[in-house]
Amino acid sequence: MTANFKLPRLLKEPTGWILIVLTMGFFYAQWPSRSPVSVEPVYYWQQLDGGLKIRWESEPTYQASGATQAWGLTRKGISFMVQTGPLNGDFGELILMMAEQDRAAVGAAIQEPLTISEGLAEYAFFDAEARIQAHRWYRLESQWIKISVLYKPSLASRVRRAAEFFANLGY
């Protein structure tokens, strides 16, 4: 008895082989283990003079300009910045002057009005590019600390990350 085995037409023609290879490539690319995994950031803790601790999404870059020091980080559509400097006068006057300067620099509308309490001030602006600029100021003895976040509120994850950055400040 002889086996009379006949190859299917799909395997005989080059077009069939192309379809097989493309199908295998499609399944390989779509397989769940090939999809990228959302990586949570490795948080970096920084302690400033005066004891204020800040949790960053990764290590910030440092910049110094005279007596003012600054740390900044831009990651996934959000810019974070922390600035410190000596307090040479009244804290309330400094905040009023700097809030007006921040607003005028970008032609912004007020998102959250300026609130000043003992050793703390907060305000937020909505700029011409539909971004929110949120600022928080602290007075520690003879220095000030300004925490700023710049982001577009179009994604809920950005709003959440900005709120987490402000929430993870403390002593």
SSE blueprint and pairings:
Layout: H1 9-12, H2 14-30, E1 44-47, E2 53-56, E3 61-65, E4 68-75, E5 78-86, H3 91-106, E6 109-117, E7 120-126, E8 132-140, E9 143-151, H4 156-167, E10 169-170
Antiparallel strand pairs: 1-2, 2-10, 3-4, 4-5, 5-9, 6-7, 7-8, 8-9
Could you explain how this protein is built, in words?
By secondary structure, the chain is of the alpha+beta class. The protein is built from 4 helices and 10 strands; from the N terminus they run H-H-E-E-E-E-E-H-E-E-E-E-H-E. The strands form 2 sheets. It has a 7-stranded antiparallel beta sheet with strand order 3-4-5-9-8-7-6, sandwiched between helices. Strands 1-2-10 form a 3-stranded antiparallel beta sheet. Strand 8 and strand 9 form a beta hairpin. The protein is elongated and about 105 Å long.
Could you provide a short overview of the structure?
The chain is α+β, with helices and mostly antiparallel strands and 171 residues long.
